[in-house]
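QA checklist item 7 of 12: single-chain prediction sanity check.
[x] sequence parsed
[x] length recorded as 279
[x] structure emitted
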Amino acid sequence: MARELTYAQTVERSIIKTYRKDIWNPFVEACKNYELVQEGDRIAVCISGGKDSVLLAMCMKHLQKISDVSFDLKFICMDPGYNDVNRKQIEHNCKALEIPVDIFESNIFEVTENVGGSPCYLCARMRRGHLYAKAKELGCNKIALGHHLSDVIETTLMGMFYGSQLQAMLPKLKSTNFEGMELIRPLYCVNESAILKWRDYNKLTFIQCACRFVDEYSNSEDGIGESKRQEIKALIKDLKKINPDIEHNIFKSIHNVKLDTFISYKLKGVEYSFLKDFN
């Protein structure tokens, strides 16, 4: 007689069974190809309360069980000033999915609320700083974030369209402010559409960012508001109607850069011009 699975085990099983091709395999591919998880690592998996970070936590838990590489995990969640409803939703999900999360507070929402214009960049930097500090306090050498393939290609296009630059999002980074610490993105090869299907398949409910800018585009007539990322999401959705491979092609393009066709590029802050070699 087969043993009855807990709810958390059922959700975890769906990742490696139902969504093996679209979630588990790309997750493992990223971990291997970009050397994200190594022997002796102590990784702080950062949970925001959204679908991406919770999926990441579930994937990392399963990987730890089956991997030949020995590594430790800590699950941390920074509360930047969530209301009671969002805080309880995070606590409920982590308990139901058997994620032993360590929740700690900060006043990021309060600080960024007084910033003119869009505070998203400042908020992201402050969040990362708090997460690094907590991870280091727990003896970790890495933090893992839930950025996925869709984030990667959207960031690339946003840089082109609004930043006048070709700049991608790397699967791992060394911290410049916390010595010996790294940031890794194990969901780097997982498309957001697969995460949404996994969420709905398991009837899971998550919080969004919970800041006023998310409310702005959620309540706007076009679902975009002033959010450039939502604008890019809508553009990609339209382009997929013409070319279903558009996301795959954009993602592959940042792995296949032909520097000798560029007018100029920067490497570690030093600018290089094609004229140098031409002349």
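[x] summary fact logged: The longest strand covers residues 72-79.
[ ] second reviewer sign-off
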